[in-house]
Write a structure and sequence with these properties.
One of its GO terms (molecular function) is lipid binding. By secondary structure, the protein is an alpha/beta fold. The chain has two domains: 127 residues, Rossmann fold; 127 residues, Hypothetical Protein Tm841, Chain: A,domain 3. It is built from eleven helices and 13 strands. The strands form three sheets. It has a six-stranded mixed sheet with strand order 10-9-8-13-11-12, sandwiched between helices. Strands 2-1-6-7 form a four-stranded parallel sheet, with helices on both faces. The longest helix has 18 residues.
């Protein structure tokens, strides 16, 4: 008997990490340009090309994982004699977690001898990924059962921080996070919002800065405020096809705290479709989410 930690591609973990951990199963989510559907498979999807399509004016849409897909994915592991811990994309941003709960409920009746638990991470992108990596590493270190791991992940969840800024306000306007007037004024004045994932798992604006560099610095300022021990915290950076800005934030982190981020990776289009090219995010473990 083994344990499978299941999550979705919204965790934005790189292919190398996924392949290195046999206990991890990452389900690809789906996005579409018009009628063209793509599976968000790490290492296979061309993130740069997809962000270029957004820049050229294409509109991408996304959809949640349905109950049947999750049911079949979980069932495969249970039939193999494995227990399942599902670390789900924030219920504040998607209905996928609720569908996972429904699938797990049916499977608990079919496989009473197996354990299956669902944890709503209330996280997105590499903050979800950070909770996943920490849970994977705990499983590999301790061999704890699914129920124990689930309770541990729930206790860790409030400490996972996700701080974002975006470069083009039209994506937040399209998603209803800011008004058309705010978007127009912000664009004219080069005002960049700072957002974070709150305790309810929603992506909410919490501030604004004049100019891109100040908005990037604001992310590091929030880390300084909330992270008590940067040298012993995992630090990840996610970007929407703006690697130079990601490296700039990595340099700011190193100058401020004396450590380099552990991971820099693309923010996949399932999230990037709603935040746009130029999205930059800093992820770390903090005393709370701020």
């Amino acid at each position: 008997m083994a344990i499978k930690i299941v999550t979705e591609s919204t965790c934005d973990l790189p292919r190398e990490y996924i392949d290195a951990h046999e206990c991890l199963d990452v389900i690809p989510m789906v996005f579409q340009f018009g009628e063209q559907e793509q599976l968000d498979v790490a290492g296979e999807v061309d993130d740069h090309a997809n962000y270029e399509r957004l820049r050229a004016g294409a509109v991408a849409t996304t959809s949640q994982l349905n109950v049947d897909l999750l049911y079949n994915r979980f069932k495969k592991h249970l039939q193999n004699g494995d227990d399942v811990l599902y670390l789900a994309f924030s219920s504040g941003l998607s209905g996928t977690c609720s569908n996972g709960v429904l699938a797990a409920s049916d499977l608990k009746r079919e496989f009473p001898e197996r354990q299956i638990e669902v944890v709503d991470t209330l996280l997105a992108s590499l903050s979800e990924g950070m909770l996943v990596t920490r849970t994977v590493e705990r499983l590999e270190r301790t061999g704890e059962d699914v129920a124990t791991l689930a309770r541990w992940a729930e206790a860790e969840r409030p400490h996972m921080n996700a701080w974002f800024t975006v470069d083009d306000l039209k994506y937040l306007k399209r998603g209803g996070r800011i008004s058309a007037t705010t978007a127009a004024l912000g664009t004219m004045l080069s005002i960049k919002p700072v957002l974070h994932v709150d305790d309810a798992g929603h992506l909410v604006p919490v501030g604004k800065e004049r100019g891109r560099k100040r908005s990037l610095k604001a992310l590091v300022d929030h880390m300084a405020e909330l992270c008590d021990d940067p040298r012993n915290s995992p630090i990840y950076i996610g970007h929407g096809d703006c690697i130079e800005d990601a490296q700039l934030v990595a340099d700011m982190v190193e100058q401020r705290f004396g450590v380099r981020p552990d991971m820099i990776n693309y923010i996949g289009l399932v999230i990037g479709a709603h935040s746009g090219p130029g999205t930059l995010a800093l992820f770390f473990v903090g005393k709370n989410r701020g």
